[in-house]
C-alpha cells in the first residue's frame, strides 16, 4: 500500500531510474532536497493512527481489517517502555527507533501530509517538476526562482504542527541518499557516488571471523553499487579504482577484487527459491556438516517424492555469532543506586 503512494521511493535503484526518466530538465531548474527532522519521534499517536486509517481506506481495505490494524498499532505505540538507569520510561509521542512498524508508519503519516497539504498547494503545482520521498528525505526539482522556493519552504515548516523541515538547494548539484545528482548547462542530469564528509573506511576487514562467502560478496555488492550509481564512464572507472583501494586497505586480496569487477559478477536479484533454508550460527566446521547433509539428501527425495521442497537441495544460511561488541556494549547501563532501590516510572515524549 505504501508503494502505491504518489511520492514513494523504494531505494537508490528506483531513484536512479527516476533520474534517467526525467532528464533533461529545464536548464534554470533548481535541485532541492528536504529533510524532516526527527520524524519518527515527532508523530503524535492520534495523528499517526488517523493517517494509517486514511491510507488503508484509500486502498479499499476491509473495514474490519482496518480496525484490527489500527488497534494493534495503538497497542505498539502506547506501550513502548524502556529502562534507563533506575527509571522506566513510557514514550508518549512518536514511534520507537528501530521498531519494525516505524518505517511504514512514518511513510503513511508523510503520505497523508502530502496528500492533504502539499499536492494542493499552488506553489507546488506551479513550480515542482519532481517530488519523490524516501521516508523523511525528499528530492525535488524546482522550476522557479529562489524567492518562490523560500516561500514554499516556509509553508512546509508551518503547515503541519510538529513537523520541522530542513532544505538544501543548488542549481547544479545536490546529494540525495548515497547519490550525487549533477545538472549541466543544458539541463542533462548525471549521477555520482556520494559520501558524507565524515565518512571513513569502515569496510569489514578481510581477517575478520566471518564466512568466506560473505567476505567475497561484499566487494561484489559495493563495486556493483558504484557501477549502478555513477553514470559517467570516466568517473565510474575512477570510483571503481577508489573503491578497490579501500578494500585493499582492509586486507582484501587483489584476485577477489579483480574477480568482483568482471561483467559476469554484476549482481542481479535472484529469483524466488523454494529451497528449505537451514539457518544456524557461522562456524568454520559448518561446511563439513553441509557436505554430510548433501551426501544424504537423496534419502529425503526418495522417501518423500511428493514433497517438492525435498526435490531441491537445502539452502545453507548463516547467522552472525556473538562477537566482542555484543559482550562489551549493553543497552541497559545498569543501576546507579543500591539494588534494593525499585525503578520508578516516568513519561518521555521522544
Automatic annotation (TrEMBL):
Xref: InterPro entries: HTH_animal, RT_dom
Designated name of the protein: Reverse transcriptase domain-containing protein
Pfam families per UniProt: HTH_animal
Cross-referenced PANTHER family: PTHR21301:SF12, REVERSE TRANSCRIPTASE
Lineage: superkingdom: Eukaryota
PROSITE patterns the record matches: RT_POL
Domain Reverse transcriptase, first and last residues per copy: 1-193
Amino acid at each position: 500500500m505504501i508503494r502505491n503512494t504518489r511520492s514513494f521511493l523504494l531505494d537508490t535503484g528506483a531513484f536512479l531510474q527516476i533520474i534517467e526518466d526525467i532528464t533533461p530538465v529545464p536548464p534554470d531548474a533548481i535541485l532541492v532536497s528536504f529533510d524532516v527532522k526527527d520524524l519518527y519521534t515527532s508523530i503524535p499517536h492520534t495523528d499517526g493512527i488517523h493517517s494509517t486509517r486514511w491510507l488503508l481506506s484509500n486502498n479499499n481495505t476491509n473495514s474490519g481489517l482496518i480496525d484490527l490494524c489500527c488497534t494493534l498499532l495503538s497497542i505498539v505505540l502506547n506501550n513502548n517502555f524502556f529502562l534507563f538507569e533506575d527509571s522506566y520510561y513510557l514514550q508518549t509521542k512518536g514511534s520507537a527507533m528501530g521498531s519494525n512498524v516505524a518505517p511504514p508508519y512514518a511513510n503513511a503519516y508523510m503520505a497523508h501530509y502530502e496528500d492533504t497539504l502539499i499536492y494542493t498547494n499552488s506553489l507546488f503545482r506551479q513550480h515542482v517538476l519532481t517530488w519523490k520521498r524516501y521516508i523523511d528525505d525528499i528530492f525535488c526539482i524546482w522550476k522557479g526562482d529562489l524567492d518562490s522556493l523560500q516561500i514554499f519552504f516556509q509553508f512546509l515548516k508551518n503547515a503541519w504542527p510538529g513537523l520541522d523541515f530542513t532544505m538544501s538547494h543548488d542549481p547544479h548539484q545536490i546529494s540525495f541518499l548515497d547519490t550525487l545528482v549533477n545538472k549541466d548547462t543544458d539541463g542533462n542530469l548525471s549521477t555520482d557516488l556520494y559520501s558524507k564528509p565524515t565518512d571513513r573506511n569502515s569496510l569489514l576487514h578481510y581477517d575478520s571471523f566471518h564466512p568466506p562467502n560473505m567476505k567475497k560478496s561484499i566487494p561484489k555488492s559495493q563495486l556493483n553499487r558504484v557501477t549502478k550509481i555513477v553514470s559517467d564512464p570516466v568517473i565510474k572507472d575512477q570510483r571503481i579504482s577508489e573503491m578497490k583501494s579501500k578494500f585493499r586497505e582492509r586486507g582484501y586480496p587483489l584476485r577477489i577484487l579483480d574477480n568482483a569487477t568482471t561483467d559476469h559478477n554484476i549482481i542481479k536479484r535472484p529469483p524466488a527459491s523454494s529451497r528449505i533454508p537451514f539457518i544456524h550460527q557461522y562456524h568454520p566446521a559448518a561446511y563439513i556438516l553441509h557436505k554430510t547433509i548433501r551426501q544424504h539428501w537423496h534419502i529425503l527425495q526418495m522417501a518423500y517424492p511428493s514433497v517438492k521442497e525435498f526435490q531441491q537441495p537445502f539452502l545453507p544460511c548463516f547467522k552472525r555469532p556473538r562477537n566482542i561488541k555484543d559482550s562489551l556494549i549493553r543497552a541497559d547501563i545498569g543501576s546507579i543506586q543500591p539494588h534494593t532501590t525499585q525503578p520508578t516510572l516516568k513519561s518521555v515524549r521522544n
